[in-house]
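Side project, low priority. Logging it here so it doesn't get lost.
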Amino acid sequence: MLGKYQVSSMGFGCVDICPVGYYGCSTTKEDMLRLVRRAYDHGITLFDTAEIYGMTVSEEWVGEALQPVRDKVIIETKFGFGVAENQPGTLNSKPEHIRQAVEGSLRRLRTDHLDMLFQHRVDPEVPIEEVAETVGQLIKEGKVLQWGLCEASAQTIRRAHAVQPISAVESEYAIWWREPETKIFPTLEELGIAFVAYAPLGRGYFTGIHNENSRYVQPDRRSVLPRFQPEAMMHNMPLIRLVQRWAERKGITPAQFSIAWVLSMCPYALAIPGTTKYWHLDELCGAPDTRLTTNELGEFNRELERIDIMGHRANAAIESQIDK
C-alpha cells in the first residue's frame, strides 16, 4: 500500500527517462515511451519521476506514455529544487515555489491531480511545518492526493506528519546502504507510513555487469560518488561476489536478488529501480515474485556484516542536501 493506494510492490524509477539521464545514458523519446508502456504491460502500476529529472523532460515523457492508462496507475513526482529558475542545484521549498512546481507537474504529466507529491529534499530555509501547510492546502484543492518526504530525518518526518499526515517516505536503501533501518524505519512503523526505496540495485552495482575494472566518466553521475572510484571498486568486490553467490543459490539474477532482499527486509517497502534497457526491465519484473525466508535473511545479513565496504554513498555536495 502507498497510503490509500494499492500498487505493485516494485515500481519504476524514471530518473533516466530523458535524453541524458543520471547515469549518462543517451536515449530517444520514442524508446523511452515504449519502455514506460512496457513497464505497465508487465504489471507495474507505480511510476516515480520528478521535475528535476531531465529538467522537466522526464515528467513530460512519463505523462505522455501513461496518458492512455492514467486512471490505472499511480504517479509520484517531486518538488524542492530551483528548476523553474534554472537553478537545479539550489533547494527551494518556499510556498509560492511549491505551487509553481505543482502547476508545472500537472501540465507536464497531463493530469488534473498528483497521486503522490514528495518534497525532494528538505529545505533548511523553510520550516517543514510551512511546507506541510502548503501541501495541505493543495490537497484540499484536489491538486494533490497524498504527499511525503525524501531523505528526511525521523524528527522532520514527525514534525511534518503532525501538520499534514504523510503517506510515504522515499530514501535510498540497498544491500550496501542500510541506514534507514535504524534511522527512520521505527518512526514509519509507529506512524503507519510506507517506505519507497530508491537505488535498490546500488545504482547498478548489484546488476552483475560491474567489476573491479569498471570505470565511470561524466555525464554518468557515479563518476563523482566515492563508492564508484577505482580503489573502492576493487575493495568492494567481495560484496558483488556475495550477491552473485546468493542469487545463484536462489536461482535468480543478482539484480532480482537485490530487489527481493529489499522487499523481504521491509514488508511495507516499495522498490523503484530504473533502467533504460528493455532486457533489464524484463529481468527486474521477475523480482517481486521472490522473497527470502527469515532464516535466509539472517544468514545472508550475517555474511554481509563481515564485509568491509569502502566509500560513502554520496559525495560532499550531495550529502550536504540530505536532512540529518
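Brief comment: Strands lie at 12-13, 46-48, 74-79, 81-82, 87-91, 116-119, 147-150, 168-172, 194-198, 269-271.
Revisit when time allows.
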